[in-house]
């Protein structure tokens, strides 16, 4: 009896313990509702809220493929050496680019807080690189990484890496690809800028700028002058005013180059003639300042030859998909450029552009002219085709 009672008691104890353990089993928590990305349409299409924040983000960019040929003075061609004979000859100039862009926006008690970044990565051949055998070759490979834009803006105050207000505020020189056959600006710079919108179409800008490591002049002047970066604590200064209406706009900018103590300016007029046709004209003028002391004709804010220069052109839209773009330009040194293209959007976001370019070098062989395009002849002709997918 004692053994039987012991066995029955042990069985009852085991059942009780098993029941207790079953009651204490781990309970799996209910899954929390998924937090889906929310659309932010305050700043335009493509923005979404960064989860857990009030900041709106947009990501975009493009992939581009360029193939060009002709004379290098047109910016389109390339020179190389035959790999067996060493004979100098023309070749394709190729470039593949991937560009990544980001935009952010957020409303604050001091106004809209925005940022913009743009990073460019390129692969292609380099014009007349020196080969191991001493000949010029066009070795294809990765090129330097380009952090092209990286700025933050609160209200009208912008700080960081941008292109100079001397170029962005007045506008680029048309919708052609090779728009710097006669150059009109130094472009990239660190800056502290303030933009003011007065309403009724009036706006203004003031920008304190560093310049860049080298201007169009310094890249090609053998004496090393023409550097665009400030050489003291005194910044370059740019100011501009603009008036915009439905018919177009008129804008003027003035720049003070603290390195050479020279002043340059540009005035531009844009006119929307019809829904299909738009035209522009821009003139630039710059003083020599201390540029004359070093025998140079060009600087970061006056990259054209001589005191004055002009750019004019327009766009005609045949259809929503096809457009014709043209630009003519010239300066006091009798440098003249012509560029024209047809751009066709095959499908939304994918555009093919074919362009023809011509440059007359008015002072070919003159060192003071800087030979900024690398031209090997007085008259250069070239062309290119571009495939670009924007996203």
TrEMBL record:
Belongs to the alphaproteobacteria porin family. This is Porin. Residues 1-22 form the signal peptide. Coiled coil: none annotated. GO terms for biological process: monoatomic ion transport. It comes from Rhizobium loti (Mesorhizobium loti). It comes from the Bacteria. InterPro entries: Porin_alphabac (IPR003684). GO terms for molecular function: porin activity. Consists of 16-stranded beta-barrel sheets, with large surface-exposed loops, that form a transmembrane pore at the center of each barrel. The pore is partially ocluded by a peptide loop that folds into the pore lumen. The lineage of its organism: Bacteria, Pseudomonadati, Pseudomonadota, Alphaproteobacteria, Hyphomicrobiales. GO terms for cellular component: cell outer membrane; pore complex. Pfam families: Porin_2. The keyword Signal applies. Forms passive diffusion pores that allow small molecular weight hydrophilic materials across the outer membrane. Keywords: Cell outer membrane, Ion transport, Membrane, Porin, Signal, Transmembrane, Transmembrane beta strand, Transport. It is found in: Cell outer membrane. It is a multi-pass membrane protein.
């Amino acid at each position: 009896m004692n053994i039987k009672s012991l066995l029955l008691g042990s069985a009852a104890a085991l059942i009780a313990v098993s029941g207790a353990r079953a009651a204490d089993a781990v309970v799996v928590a209910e899954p929390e509702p998924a937090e889906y990305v929310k659309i932010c349409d305050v700043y335009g299409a493509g923005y979404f809220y960064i989860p857990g924040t009030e900041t709106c983000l947009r990501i975009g960019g493009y992939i581009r493929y360029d193939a060009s040929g002709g004379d290098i003075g047109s910016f389109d061609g390339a020179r190389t050496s035959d790999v067996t004979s060493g004979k100098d000859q023309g070749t394709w100039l190729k470039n593949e680019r991937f560009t990544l862009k980001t935009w952010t926006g957020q409303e604050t008690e001091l106004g809209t807080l925005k940022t913009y970044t743009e990073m460019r990565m390129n692969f292609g051949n380099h014009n007349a690189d020196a080969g191991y055998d001493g000949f010029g070759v066009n070795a294809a490979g990765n090129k330097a990484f380009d952090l092209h834009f990286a700025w933050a803006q609160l209200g009208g105050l912008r700080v960081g890496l941008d292109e100079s207000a001397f170029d962005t505020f007045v506008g680029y020189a048309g919708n052609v690809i090779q728009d710097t056959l006669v150059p009109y600006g130094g472009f990239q710079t660190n800056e502290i800028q303030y933009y003011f919108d007065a309403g009724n179409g009036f706006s203004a800008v003031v920008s304190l700028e560093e310049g860049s490591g080298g201007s169009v002049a310094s890249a090609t002047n053998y004496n090393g002058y023409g550097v665009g970066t400030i050489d003291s604590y005194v910044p370059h200064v740019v100011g501009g005013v603009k008036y915009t209406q439905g018919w177009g706009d008129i804008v003027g900018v003035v720049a003070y180059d603290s390195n050479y103590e020279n002043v340059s300016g540009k005035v531009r007029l844009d006119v929307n003639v019809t829904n299909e046709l738009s035209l522009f004209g821009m003139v630039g003028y710059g003083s020599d300042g201390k540029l004359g002391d070093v025998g140079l004709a060009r600087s970061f804010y006056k990259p054209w030859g001589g005191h004055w220069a002009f750019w004019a052109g327009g766009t005609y839209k045949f259809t929503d998909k096809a457009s014709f773009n043209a630009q003519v330009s010239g300066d006091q040194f009798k440098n003249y450029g012509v560029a024209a293209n047809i751009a066709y959007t095959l499908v939304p976001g994918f555009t093919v552009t074919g362009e023809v370019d011509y440059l007359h070098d008015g002072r070919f062989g003159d060192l003071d002219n800087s030979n900024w395009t690398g031209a090997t002849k007085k008259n250069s002709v070239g062309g290119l085709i571009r495939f670009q997918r924007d996203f």
